Structures are given as C-alpha cells and as structure tokens.
Amino acid sequence: MTQRKIALVLGATGGIGNAMAQKLIQRGWQVRALHRRAGEMAVSNSSGIEWRQGDAMQAQDVIAAAEGVALIVHAVNPPGYRNWAQLVLPMIDNSIAAARASGARIVLPGTVYNYDADAILAPNEASPQKPVTRKGAIRVQLERRLQAAAQSGVRTLVVRAGDFFGPHMANSWFSQGLVKAGQPIKKVVYPGKRGIGHQWAYLPDVAETMMQLIEREAELGAFETFHMNGHWDTDGTEMVAAIGRASGQPDLRAWAFPWWLVVLGSPFVPLFREMREMSYLWRQPLHLDNRRLLKLLGKEPHTGLDEAVRAALTGIGCIKT
Predict the structure, then answer these.
(1) How far, in whole angstroms, is CA 185 from its chain's centroid?
(2) φ and ψ of 204, to 5 deg
(3) How many structural domains is the chain composed of?
(4) Does the reported pTM lie above 0.90?
(5) Is the pLDDT of residue 1 over 50?
(6) Can you give the residue ranges of the NAD-dependent epimerase/dehydratase domain (predicted)?
(7) 54's torsion region: left (phi>0), alpha (psi -120 to 50) or beta?
(8) If we measure between CA atoms, which residue out of 233, 255, 207, 227 comes closest to residue 305?
(9) Residue 212: inside a domain
C-alpha cells in the first residue's frame, strides 16, 4: 500500500492501538486518532499522532476523521469487558461506514472468544466459529458484518492472537491478574490450571505482523483473516518462570487465582461476572493455528519470551531498568 499513507487508529490509547500507531509512524505513515478529549491528548502526547475530536460511537465523527485515509485500525473496545452488547456492534458499524466513505481497509485485532475450546483445540481461519459466551457471540457478529461489507467493497484484515501483553497494556490478564501494574513483583497469581496450555501475544509482535500484512495489500483479498502463534505456554509454567527471571526472582512462587471470589461476587460486581464468563479459556487449551500466516510471510514476527516479558514488566512499572 503506497498511496495515501494516512491511517486512522481508533483506540490509540489502548494496548494494541498504541502499538499500531507507533508502528505505522515508524513506517512513515501519518497517523490520526479519535478522542473525546483531543485537545488534552495533543498537549500531553508527543508521539507524532494527530488527535481528532470525536467519539467512536458517533458515525459522523468517525467518517470525518477517516476522510482521505487508506487504513482504519479498529482497536477500540469497551473497557473492563463491560457493555459489549450496547457498544461493540455500533462501533464496528461506524468504522464500516467510514471505510466505505474513504475507501480504506479496516484492520481488526481478532479474539479467541469466537471459538469453543471443547469443540476444537487448534482452530485455523476456516474453523467453524461456535462461541460459548455472550462476548464471543458478539465478536462473531462483528466479523460477519465485516465479511458482509466486503461483498460491497469494504476491505478488512483480521489478525487473531492470544492474550495480549506488552509495555503499554495496563488492562489485561498479564498486568491485572498475573502481576499488578505499577507494583513491585512479590508473587504471580496465575488464573489457569497447571498442565493446561495458554496462548499469549506480545503487542509489538502483533503490530509488526499487522504491518507486514498491510504492506502486502496487493496480495490480500477483500476479507482476510490470519492467526498468530505468539507465545504458547505449554503447561502454564513458562510465563510464570519468565516473570521470575525478568524480576530477578527465579524461585518466584505462583499463587492460584481466587476464582471462588469471582464466582461469589459475580451477581453483584459486573466485572466479576464478565471474568467468570471468560474463565473457560483458562480451563481448556486453545492454540491458534498460524500456518496460513507462515505461508504468506515466511515467518511470524517473534520476540523471545524473556525479552518480551522484561519489556512488558518495565513498561507497566513493575520493574526498573
């Protein structure tokens, strides 16, 4: 993609949105971002992003911000798992409308929520999507709307990966579950069962994968989906051990996540209710098949686990350089 190297990033203050914005800038793109307090962001943020006033829930704001862009990175999600039913689909409809008006391709970070881990352990891009949760069903609807829009010229690229972690990901299982952002590491609280594999995705690697695919625009169809391997923790111990090494505590103890508290509190605490719904991904292994990505790119962008974990812990303020 060489024409109009302008991109609109929705969710630029979030983990993958920020990673994509920085990656685009490094590659010579002009990056716009939509924010309800654009003036404040322009003053406090010196990263080279052009901040536009607006709200991703307002179609006209998104359409106006996307004027003349070649790419829309749809990395916006409701915070804390909440209000998905009311917010997720209207936001993707607004991005579709903006892409239709501008001729841009939409780039979407996909989730594993679309799959039932009981039904298939290693889904590829053609595997049936039979979600077992409300959020999974919403994500399936979201992708179906994009696929339908592709029939009338709205191009989409979906890159699906495991649980995100990285230097600017303060709201994730890694930074709010295993460790606590901004706090020294004294223990790791692990949500999964010992012996059950779990898939992780380092944000800079996800952004680099997206970027390499974007740069192969001529080889992409109207609706494309690719899966990443990222970091596959075969038994739930590798991520804990990497955190121990990065923090200089090789014997760091892993404590069991208090799911009992989540169960008891879920009728009263909305966040606990949402966490309980997604808990199946910690009880059952789900390992995305990345062979289609490898066929196109040759290899998947990959940072070693120790380097990635050290950068993530430093970025979220758990260890000092």
Answers:
(1) 24
(2) -60, -30
(3) 1
(4) yes
(5) no
(6) 7-221
(7) left
(8) 233
(9) yes
